[in-house]
Design goal:
4 helices; 3-stranded mixed sheet; mainly alpha
C-alpha cells in the first residue's frame, strides 16, 4: 500500500501542513469527516470531480495507520500550489 499513501502529501503552505490529497486543497480530515457523516464514495466523487476512488482509500489507510500507531511519513511538498 505504499503507492496508495503516496497520494497523501503535506505542504507547509497549505492548511498549515495538514495532510492533503495529491497537493490539492482538500485535507484528509475533511474526507474522513464526510465519510463519518454518512457521505458515500459516489457523493465525494461528485463533489470533487478531480478526486479518485484511490484518493479516498488512501485517506482511510492513512487514518488506519495512525490509529494503529504506525509511523506514517507523508511526502512533503514545498512548492506553493
Amino acid at each position: 500500500m505504499p503507492d496508495l499513501l503516496d497520494r497523501i502529501t503535506v505542504n507547509p503552505a497549505i492548511f498549515g501542513g495538514k495532510p492533503i490529497i495529491r497537493g490539492h486543497r482538500l485535507a484528509v480530515e475533511h474526507v474522513l469527516g464526510m465519510l463519518a457523516a454518512g457521505d458515500d464514495l459516489h457523493t465525494l466523487l461528485e463533489g470533487y470531480p478531480w478526486l479518485e476512488r484511490e484518493d479516498v482509500l488512501a485517506c482511510v489507510e492513512y487514518a488506519r495507520r495512525l490509529v494503529a500507531h504506525e509511523h506514517v511519513e507523508p511526502r512533503i511538498v514545498t512548492t506553493a500550489a
